[in-house]
Amino acid sequence: MLATSMDSQRQSQSQPLSQRQSPSAAGPLRAPSREETWRGGLVDDLERVILSEAQIQRRVAELGRQISEDYRGRDLLVVGVLCGSFPFIADLVRTMNLPLAIDFMAVSSYGNRTTSSGVVRILKDLNSSIAGRHVLLVEDIVDSGQTLRYLIDNLQTRRPASLEICTLLDKQEARTVDINTLYVGFECPNEFVVGYGLDYAGRYRNLPYIGVLKPEIYQ
Ligand code: PRP
After folding, report:
1. CATH number for the domain running over 36-218
2. 155: which of 42, 178, 186, 217 is 20 to 30 A away, CA to CA?
3. What's the predicted TM-score (pTM) here?
């Protein structure tokens, strides 16, 4: 039987990665280095980098170790608050050798602005019940604290065994409501920061480090 074009496409997709050829005649694909990827482009919009990739990864591993010790033997549900927490939670749970479960909530309070509106909307709720479970809520940043205040109040009504907060960044100076953050990666200056999940108008989340955005970008 003649091979269809679909069959030959399947064959080429199942080829070992190391043997795949670039679609051009230039030869095998070569992954660009981190340095090559992050030269120019998005990076030019930053005034300065405040947390390097290495600093973030080191601190994430420390947090993961601490959390693993604290939750050993408990039924842990790690809840990521989308979208900002996605790189942090992905890196964090991969440093935790525990039989944990993961769920997500999506909320929005900032829109395309640089300050919190104070109005929190749940865009996606949890898939599972948290009754009787130990819940660790993971955020990229606590700024005014309004988002977490709303989430904590909401989740407490669902009767978890415990509810704690882990945030990569804590912007204490911007706080307008009291939030008890048990695990904090770094204190954050009261400036507009982007990268590693943090966005401005939906952009910059994919930067592997965190920096201060040039004011002319958002003014
Ligand atoms: C950001 C961030 C926190 C919140 C913190 O979310 O991820 O959830 O703001 O601000 P607050 O302490 O002043 O409430 P945002 O609403 O921008 O959505 P995102 O996670 O999709 O970026």
Report:
1. 3.40.50.2020
2. 186
3. 0.85
